[in-house]
Amino acid sequence: MRHVPLGRTGLFVSELCLGTMTFGGSEGMWGAIGKLQQSDAERLVGQALDAGINFIDTADVYAGGASEQITGQALRNLKVARDQVVVATKVFGETGPGANMRGATRSHILDGVKASLKRLQLEHIDLYQIHGFDPATPIEETVRALDQLVRHGHVRYVGVSNWAAWQIVKALGISERLGLARFESLQAYYTVAGRDLERELIPMLRSEGVGLMVWSPLAGGLLSGKYGRAQQAEAGSRRVSFDFPPVNKDRAWDVVDVMREIAQARGCTVPQVALAWLLHQPQVTSVIVGAKKPEQLADNIGATQVRLEAGEMEKLDAVSKLPGEYPGWMFERQGEARRKQLRDAAR
Fold first, then answer.
1. pTM as predicted
2. 227 an active-site residue?
3. Where would I find the beta strands (DSSP E) of the chain?
4. Torsion angle, CA of 72/45/238/201, rounded to 10 degrees?
5. pLDDT digits (tens, 9 = 90+) for 67-85
6. Which residue among the candidates 62, 157, 189, 190 is catalytic per the annotation?
């Protein structure tokens, strides 16, 4: 298990991060995602730590706060030293019926961190992330509130999730201008069958030195090997009851066909190939893996041992490549001469 710096910080996190979205669900959407209670969830946390994973991600809205409670209790029951684990959580979603119990306002952030710390039974959160973009709150208000949490020691680093490139860059500019704590990471959806963030977000992350945490790396189970063009998943599978995130199915089936070939030739599994592809992407810091069963988590962890060859990466790239969009195809056309100059200069 490799450990790499998070963004521009000196904080090292494991290349796989344990996601806790499957913890604590009982009914509705959260029940469909996962219903693991304390003992079963604790077993997965222990398994992840034993494998070298030092990074755990949760959120205040997962199962109505139950995910944070279970995660915090698991760390306490397993007697995990605080400096041996990096705990990340998120704030933004609705946590109650009041008009101000949602969003990225100073009010909701300051109340949210107190509630998360209590549920997690921690004195500080290592990475506190804004879970979504709030069109009703000025970005400056959000980053000032996060900076206050860092200065007070409640939070060590701050990040963001599900924002557009322009929104993140605007926040980074405000932070630099005012000397505030900046976003060090983006948590975003990215898979070999869903490469949309390569258009704007990946170039921005590379330019600004922001780390990337990947959520739903198997596209909500679509790349788990249980599905195919003519293959229906068994009853009770997550995609049957909760068809999310949205994916271009035709492209996904083409990708799955190639991954099956690679998995069969290598003696590994389809999801291991999907995760390995992400781990080979230079901008990816950590891939968040969630599980309902120990054997599922063990399979995901095994992806760290899969080293895809150049030919295999080329096959996957060819079948999953995004169609050209403006202004990308103009960048490619007009910039070729300058790119050639750079290549020649590097020889």
1. 0.94
2. no
3. 3-5, 12-14, 16-19, 55-57, 86-91, 125-130, 155-161, 183-189, 211-215, 286-289
4. 80
5. 999 999 999 999 999 999 9
6. 62
